[in-house]
Amino acid sequence: MRGGAPIWITAAVTLAACLAVLAIFHNHSDSESDLIAQQHLKTLDVAYRSTIEMYRLDIETRLAAQVLVPSVTDLLAEAGRETDADRLAVLRGRLYRALMPAYRQMKAQGLAQFHFHLVDGRSFLRFISPALFGDDLFAVRPSVRIANRELRPVSGFEGGRHMPGFRNVHPIVVGDRHFGSVEISMPFEKIHENLVRLLPAGAYALLVHRRGTTDIVFSEQREKFVPTELHRDYVTENPKISRISRDFVQSPTARLLDPLLQDRADVRAGIDAGDSFAVPLLVGDRGWVASFLAIRDPEGAHAAYIVAYVEAPVLLLIERSAILRSAGAIALILVAAFAVVGLLRHRRKLAEERQQLDLITHAMADCLYVIDGRGEAVFVNAAALRLLGFEADEFLGHRVHDLIHNHARNGNMPLHDCPIFATTRDGRPFDGEELFVDKAGRVIPVEVASRPLIQNGTVTGSVTVFRDIGERLRGE
Q1: What pLDDT, on the 0 to 100 scale, is given for residue 361?
Q2: Distances (CA, A) of 185 to 107, 204, 298, 462
Q3: 296: β partners
Q4: Rounded CA separation 330/335 (Å)
Q5: Per-residue pLDDT reduced to its tens digit, 274-285
Q6: What does the alpha-carbon distance between residue 168 and residue 157 come to, in Å, rounded to a whole number?
Q7: Taking each helix axis from N to C terminus, what angle separates 70-81 and 85-108, rounded to the nearest 10 degrees?
Q8: Helix ranges restricted to H, 63-187
Q9: CA distances from 202 to 192, 257, 288 (A)
Q10: 171 near 315, Cβ under 8 Å?
Q11: Dihedral sign (CA 319, 320, 325, 331)
Q12: Does the predicted model carry a pTM greater than 0.85?
C-alpha cells in the first residue's frame, strides 16, 4: 500500500497538471480569437464611418446645388407664415413640383427619403409619401429638433414615422432668417452597398430597436418590419419587402450562425447592454466572426446594430495550434510522470522534454501573418508588427508583398514573380531566406516558412512565419 501511494499522488498531480495545461492553452487560444474578433469589429466600424462621411459630403453638395436655392427658401418662408390649410396645400404642391427633377435623381441613386420640416417641427413635405404631413416630429426625431433649435446640421442613424434611416438634416437659414429644415436620408441599402465593397465577403444586416421603428412609425408602415430571432427587442426590415434582409436570412452563413448566436448568453448580454462587440465562432472546420456594431442616434442613445458575419480562417489555425501545443504539453507531462515513477535516470531526459515544452509554449514569439487568395493580409501578430513597424490597420487589408517584399534590393519584384506567393498559390510549401523591408524602408534579412491554406481542394491563402536573421548573418 505504501508503494502505491506515490503512484496515486503522481497520478493526481499528473491529472491536475494536464487540466492546468488545457486551461492555459484554452485561455490563450480564446484570447487570440478574441483579438481577431476585435480586429474584425474595428474594420467594420472604420468602413461604416467612412461610408457615412462619404455620403454626408455628397448630400451637403447636393443640398447646396439643388435644394437650398432662393426659389425653395421663398416657398418655405411663405409656408412658415401661412395658417390656412388650403393655402399650405398649394405651397406644398409648388415645392413638390419644383424639386421633383432633383428627387428623381436622388431616387435613382437610392436616396428615397427627401423631407422638409417647418420651424416648429411639423412635417411639411415627404417626397416619399406626399400625403403624410403635418405631424409633429420634435417628439420622435431628435435630429429635427436639434437642427431647428440649435441651427446646426445633424447626421446619424435615427428612427422615424415612415422608416428609420441614416439622417442628414440641415437647418435652412438665409441671412438671419430661419425657414425650417430639410433632410436627405439613406436607407441601409446604401450603407450595405458600400460595406460589401470595402469589407471581406460575408453576410451583413441591420437590426433596429423597436423604439425607433414599430413604436413610432405610422401604423400602415409597421408591416415593413418583422422581429429578429437574435433578440426580442429588435426588428429587421421584412424580407418580403427588403432585398437586403431577404438575402441575409436566406444566406447559408446566417442560417448556420443565427441558431448558435441566439442561444449564447454572452450575445444576449451584449445586445442588452447596447454595446459593440464581436464573437469568434468555430463551426466544423471553419472559423467565423460575428460582429455587432452599435449605432447611436443624434442624442447618443443606442438605436441599432449593424451585424456582420465574416469567415475568419485564422481562428481555425489558432484552435489547431492550441490543440497541438496542448497535446504536446500533456504528452510531455505523461512522459515526465512515467519517468518519475519508473526510473530516476530519466531526469535528464525529463528536463530536455520540459525545455521542448517551453519552446512549444513560446513559439508565437516568431512573426506571423495570414493572407487571402489575393495576397491581402487578413491576420498579423504583434511580433510581426513590432519588427516591421506597422500599425495593424496599416497592414491588414493590404497586399503584403507590396508592403514588405517589393523593394529596390530585389528589383521591385512584382507579385506574380514573388517566390513565396507563387509557391503557396500552387499548393506547395515554401522555406527559404528572403529580404523584407519595414515601414521605414530598412531591409531586413529573414528566414521564411510559408504554408498554403487549402479548403475543399482550393488554395484560399497562406500562413507565413518568419524571423529576423540579420544578427545571425552578421555573426557568420
Answers
A1: 31
A2: 11, 20, 14, 42
A3: 302
A4: 9
A5: 899 999 988 888
A6: 9
A7: 150
A8: 70-81, 85-108, 142-150
A9: 11, 12, 10
A10: no
A11: positive
A12: no
